[in-house]
Amino acid sequence: MKDNANERGGLRYAATFKEKILGVGCDVDISVDIGSKVAVVIASMTRMLSSQPAFRISRDDLAALAACVKTAKERASILDSKAEGASDHQLNCSCGGAALIIVKPFADKPARYTLSIGLFNREGTLDELTTKELDDAVEKLDTLASRITSKV
Protein backbone atom coordinates (compact mmCIF):
# COMPACT_ATOMS: atom_id res chain seq x y z
CA MET A 1 0.00 0.00 0.00
CA LYS A 2 3.02 2.26 0.13
CA ASP A 3 4.95 3.93 -2.64
CA ASN A 4 7.27 6.89 -3.05
CA ALA A 5 4.37 9.36 -3.45
CA ASN A 6 3.94 9.58 0.31
CA GLU A 7 7.65 10.14 0.81
CA ARG A 8 7.89 13.01 -1.72
CA GLY A 9 5.39 15.18 0.04
CA GLY A 10 2.08 16.36 -1.22
CA LEU A 11 -1.26 16.81 0.41
CA ARG A 12 -2.44 13.92 2.57
CA TYR A 13 -5.54 13.15 4.54
CA ALA A 14 -4.74 11.44 7.83
CA ALA A 15 -6.86 9.86 10.53
CA THR A 16 -6.18 7.95 13.74
CA PHE A 17 -8.26 5.13 15.18
CA LYS A 18 -8.08 3.42 18.58
CA GLU A 19 -8.33 -0.31 17.89
CA LYS A 20 -7.27 -3.68 19.23
CA ILE A 21 -4.79 -5.26 16.85
CA LEU A 22 -3.47 -8.72 17.75
CA GLY A 23 -5.29 -8.32 21.06
CA VAL A 24 -3.27 -5.22 21.98
CA GLY A 25 -4.57 -1.65 22.22
CA CYS A 26 -3.23 0.35 19.28
CA ASP A 27 -3.38 3.75 17.71
CA VAL A 28 -3.83 3.08 14.01
CA ASP A 29 -2.58 5.97 11.89
CA ILE A 30 -3.70 6.06 8.27
CA SER A 31 -2.35 8.59 5.82
CA VAL A 32 -3.68 8.79 2.27
CA ASP A 33 -2.02 10.80 -0.48
CA ILE A 34 -4.79 12.97 -1.98
CA GLY A 35 -3.43 12.69 -5.53
CA SER A 36 -2.51 9.01 -5.75
CA LYS A 37 -4.91 7.68 -3.08
CA VAL A 38 -2.06 5.52 -1.77
CA ALA A 39 -2.50 4.71 1.93
CA VAL A 40 0.16 4.15 4.55
CA VAL A 41 -1.13 2.29 7.62
CA ILE A 42 0.82 2.11 10.89
CA ALA A 43 -0.34 0.39 14.09
CA SER A 44 1.31 1.70 17.26
CA MET A 45 0.94 -0.57 20.27
CA THR A 46 0.27 1.37 23.46
CA ARG A 47 0.91 0.55 27.09
CA MET A 48 -1.27 1.48 30.00
CA LEU A 49 -0.26 4.77 31.61
CA SER A 50 2.17 5.67 28.83
CA SER A 51 1.81 8.19 26.03
CA GLN A 52 4.71 6.70 24.04
CA PRO A 53 4.07 3.77 21.71
CA ALA A 54 5.67 0.52 22.81
CA PHE A 55 6.01 -0.74 19.22
CA ARG A 56 5.06 0.38 15.70
CA ILE A 57 4.47 -1.80 12.66
CA SER A 58 3.06 -1.15 9.22
CA ARG A 59 0.24 -3.04 7.59
CA ASP A 60 2.66 -4.11 4.86
CA ASP A 61 5.10 -5.55 7.41
CA LEU A 62 2.29 -7.55 9.06
CA ALA A 63 1.26 -8.93 5.67
CA ALA A 64 4.89 -9.82 4.87
CA LEU A 65 5.21 -11.58 8.23
CA ALA A 66 2.05 -13.62 7.51
CA ALA A 67 3.58 -14.65 4.18
CA CYS A 68 6.76 -15.73 6.01
CA VAL A 69 4.69 -17.87 8.39
CA LYS A 70 3.03 -19.63 5.44
CA THR A 71 6.36 -20.24 3.72
CA ALA A 72 8.02 -21.42 6.94
CA LYS A 73 5.29 -24.01 7.50
CA GLU A 74 5.70 -25.23 3.92
CA ARG A 75 9.49 -25.37 4.12
CA ALA A 76 10.00 -26.53 7.74
CA SER A 77 11.36 -29.86 6.56
CA ILE A 78 14.61 -28.04 5.80
CA LEU A 79 15.21 -28.22 9.57
CA ASP A 80 15.15 -32.04 9.58
CA SER A 81 18.90 -32.13 8.99
CA LYS A 82 21.67 -29.58 9.44
CA ALA A 83 23.94 -28.46 6.65
CA GLU A 84 27.23 -30.33 6.70
CA GLY A 85 29.49 -28.88 9.38
CA ALA A 86 26.78 -26.61 10.88
CA SER A 87 26.55 -26.52 14.66
CA ASP A 88 23.03 -25.08 14.66
CA HIS A 89 20.35 -23.86 12.26
CA GLN A 90 16.98 -22.12 12.17
CA LEU A 91 14.41 -20.43 9.97
CA ASN A 92 13.87 -16.77 10.73
CA CYS A 93 12.11 -13.71 9.40
CA SER A 94 12.22 -10.11 10.54
CA CYS A 95 9.66 -7.60 9.26
CA GLY A 96 9.46 -4.10 10.67
CA GLY A 97 10.96 -5.15 13.99
CA ALA A 98 8.70 -8.19 14.35
CA ALA A 99 10.43 -11.56 14.41
CA LEU A 100 9.61 -15.17 13.64
CA ILE A 101 12.13 -17.84 14.62
CA ILE A 102 11.68 -21.57 14.03
CA VAL A 103 14.05 -24.17 15.45
CA LYS A 104 14.16 -27.95 15.60
CA PRO A 105 16.70 -28.77 18.28
CA PHE A 106 16.42 -32.57 18.09
CA ALA A 107 15.49 -34.88 15.23
CA ASP A 108 12.86 -36.72 17.30
CA LYS A 109 11.19 -33.50 18.58
CA PRO A 110 8.78 -31.26 16.66
CA ALA A 111 9.94 -27.88 15.39
CA ARG A 112 9.15 -24.94 17.69
CA TYR A 113 8.45 -21.31 16.90
CA THR A 114 8.63 -17.93 18.59
CA LEU A 115 6.67 -15.02 17.12
CA SER A 116 7.22 -11.54 18.57
CA ILE A 117 5.39 -8.45 17.38
CA GLY A 118 5.93 -5.78 20.01
CA LEU A 119 3.63 -6.58 22.93
CA PHE A 120 2.18 -9.60 21.07
CA ASN A 121 4.17 -12.80 21.66
CA ARG A 122 3.42 -16.42 20.83
CA GLU A 123 5.45 -19.61 21.04
CA GLY A 124 4.81 -23.31 20.69
CA THR A 125 5.15 -26.19 18.29
CA LEU A 126 5.17 -25.35 14.60
CA ASP A 127 1.95 -27.34 14.14
CA GLU A 128 0.19 -24.76 16.37
CA LEU A 129 1.38 -21.78 14.32
CA THR A 130 -1.23 -20.24 12.03
CA THR A 131 -1.61 -16.96 10.19
CA LYS A 132 -5.16 -16.39 11.49
CA GLU A 133 -4.30 -13.64 13.98
CA LEU A 134 -2.00 -11.92 11.47
CA ASP A 135 -4.53 -12.23 8.65
CA ASP A 136 -7.28 -10.85 10.92
CA ALA A 137 -5.03 -7.90 11.86
CA VAL A 138 -4.23 -7.13 8.21
CA GLU A 139 -7.92 -7.38 7.31
CA LYS A 140 -8.86 -4.98 10.10
CA LEU A 141 -6.19 -2.50 8.98
CA ASP A 142 -7.37 -2.81 5.37
CA THR A 143 -10.97 -2.13 6.44
CA LEU A 144 -9.89 1.02 8.28
CA ALA A 145 -7.78 2.13 5.32
CA SER A 146 -10.68 1.65 2.92
CA ARG A 147 -12.79 3.99 5.09
CA ILE A 148 -10.18 6.68 4.66
CA THR A 149 -9.40 6.13 0.97
CA SER A 150 -13.14 6.19 0.12
CA LYS A 151 -13.37 9.57 1.84
CA VAL A 152 -10.53 10.95 -0.29
Can you lay out the helices and strands and say which pair or pack?
Elements: H1 5-8, E1 12-21, E2 24-33, E3 39-46, E4 53-58, H2 59-75, E5 91-95, E6 98-103, E7 112-117, E8 120-125, H3 132-151
Antiparallel strand pairs: 1-2, 2-3, 3-4, 5-6, 6-7, 7-8
Summarize the structure.
The protein is an alpha+beta fold and 152 residues long. The protein is 27% helix and 38% strand.
Beta-strand content bin: 35-45%
Per DSSP E runs of 2 or more residues, the count of β-strands stands at 8
Shape, per Cα inertia axes: elongated
| Rg computed from alpha carbons, rounded to a whole number of angstroms | 18 Å
Helix content: 25-40%
Helix/strand-derived category reads: alpha+beta
- Residue runs with pLDDT of under 50 for 5 or more positions: 1-6
Query: What spatial order of strands do you see in the largest sheet?
Result: 1-2-3-4
| Mean of all residue-level pLDDT scores | 91
The H-and-E topology, N to C, reads as HEEEEHEEEEH
Total of domains: 1
Main beta sheet: 4 strands, antiparallel
The number of helical segments is 3
Distance between the termini: 15 Å
What does this structure look like?
- The chain is α+β, with helices and mostly antiparallel strands and 152 residues long.
- The chain has one domain (5-151).
- Helix content is 27%, strand content 38%.
- The chain has three helices and eight strands.
- The protein has helices spanning 5-8, 59-75, 132-151, and strands at 12-21, 24-33, 39-46, 53-58, 91-95, 98-103, 112-117, 120-125.
- The strands form two sheets. It has a four-stranded antiparallel sheet.
- Helix 2 (59-75) packs antiparallel against helix 3 (132-151).
- The longest helix is centred in the C-terminal third of the chain and has 20 residues, at 132-151.
